[in-house]
Amino acid sequence: MRRIALGSANEAVAQALAEPGGWPFRTAVLTGPPRSGKSLLARWFAESGRGEALDDAHRLEETALFHRWNRAQEQGTALLIVGGEPPWRIALPDLASRLGAALQLEIGPHPDEALAAELLLAHAQARGLPLGEGAEAYIVPRVERSWAALERVIAEIDRLSLERKAPATHSLWRAGLEAVMGPEEPRLL
Q1: Where are the alpha helices (DSSP H) in 134-185?
Q2: Tens digits of per-residue pLDDT, 50-64?
């Protein structure tokens, strides 16, 4: 399992997942931006034996989700329900009231600078892409501070490195940033 990078946007969520004993109705609802690590946190929660995780629950039929909630209550199992971006609108009144009473966890929309640097390195490592010294110091202040943008920049640097058969150095970092953010972006200067 990949290591979970923590920062101000997700640290409180990770702490709450570590101690499900205090959750109301042994249930927590986790939401957050795309690519923010919701699924990774859900896998960590389930694999750690703390309870059951239901990922992409916002895509499930509400009656089926309601039955999963009831089953977890009957078994006394902590249940982490992972939805999409907030707000998550639930039409089924009984389900809405039960999930409304659960612990609400939300990953913040923007990783802080330290977390962004750690995520860049984690994404590069997952791709087997050595970035070279100083990559975080150059890329982090220039990239859009979103979970998805950080991942896209690394994917683009990796693509360029493979295409040009060149190591990921300053020129490829800049080219990757320009490809993702546009060459007119003032932060690239």
Answers
A1: 135-139, 147-164, 170-181
A2: 999 999 999 999 999
- Let me know if domain 11-106 sits in CATH 3.40.50.300: yes
State the Cα–Cα distance between residues 88 and 90, nearest whole angstrom. Answer: 6
What gap in Å lies between CA 162 and CA 159, rounded to an integer? 5
Candidates 1, 12, 15; CA nearest to 108 is: 12
- Structurally, at CATH architecture level, domain 113-188 sits in Orthogonal Bundle (1.10)
Backbone angles phi, psi at 58, to 5 degrees: -65, -15
Instruction: Identify any residues that bridge with 52 across adjacent strands, giving them in sequence order.
Output: 79
The answer to whether residues 105 and 42 touch, using CB atoms and an 8 Å cutoff, is no
Phi, psi of 125 (to 5 degrees): -65, -40
Which amino acid is present at 64? A
pTM for the model stands at 0.81
Domains 11-106 and 113-188 share a fold: no
Rg (CA), the chain: 19
Q: Measuring CA to CA, which residue among 90, 47, 95, 93 is closest to residue 72?
A: 95
Give the domain ranges of the chain: 11-106, 113-188
